[in-house]
Amino acid sequence: MVTTPSLDLMLERVETLLTRYEQLQRAHASLQEQVDTLTHERDSLQSRLTAARSRVDALIERLPKTFDQDES
C-alpha cells in the first residue's frame, strides 16, 4: 500500500497522541492512588484527633475546680 506524506504525518501524529494518552492514563491512575492514600490518611488523622480531643476534655473535667469566680 502506498501512503502519501500527509497520511504518514497523520499516522505519526495519531501514534504520538495514543502514546501521550497512555502516559496520561498511567499518570492519572498514579495520582488517583495518591489521592486515595492521602484521603485515607487524613480520615485516620481526623479520627485520632477527635479521640484525643475527647480524652483531653475528659481529663479537663476531672481537674479539681480550684479557681472559683469569687477569687478572680
Structural class of the helices, strands and pairings? mainly alpha
Radius of gyration: 31 Å
Helix content: over 70%
Most strands sheet: none
**Number of helical runs?**
1
Give the integer mean of the pLDDT values: 91
Q: How widely separated are the two ends?
A: 98 Å
Tally the beta strands.
0
**Principal-axes shape call:** rod-shaped
Order of helices and strands: H
> Low-confidence spans: pLDDT under 50, at least 5 residues?
none
The portion of residues forming beta strands comes to under 5%
Report on the structure:
This protein has 72 residues and is an all-alpha fold. Helix content is 81%, strand content 0%. It has one helix and no strands. The radius of gyration is 31 Å and the shape is rod-shaped.
